[in-house]
Specification:
The chain has five helices and four strands, in the order H-H-E-H-E-E-H-H-E. The chain has 123 residues and is of the alpha+beta class. It folds into two domains: 30 residues, no CATH class; 83 residues, Alpha-Beta Plaits, CATH 3.30.70.
Length: 123
Amino acid sequence: MCIGGVESALRAGFPAIARRGRTLDACTSVTGVFHVLRINYDKPVEVIDQTRPAHLAWLADEVAAGRILLAGRQESGAGGVLITGDISAEDAQVIIDRDPYTLAGVVSYERLSFNGGIRAPGL
């Protein structure tokens, strides 16, 4: 079920959105599952940087395939964050397992999964 309009926002429990007059017409589905993959550097940055070129090449392939939508380093420098497309938990684990950082044993991952019930157009 997709939510649209101020009244629908109120009924769905989004009063702040309704007060600002925003609508949620852009959502498309509540069945999609997206994942926030938090990368934690387990080795010094100098060690991480040795694997970085392979990680960046792998990342470009994942983005091109649509499995990763956004990626970047954490502002703190302690790791990175990947936001997946609408994929299964099993596919998210495959992404983690194939990352050259994982294969080199220099990072650990945390996965937070959520349904993409409200989303921007095109997602």
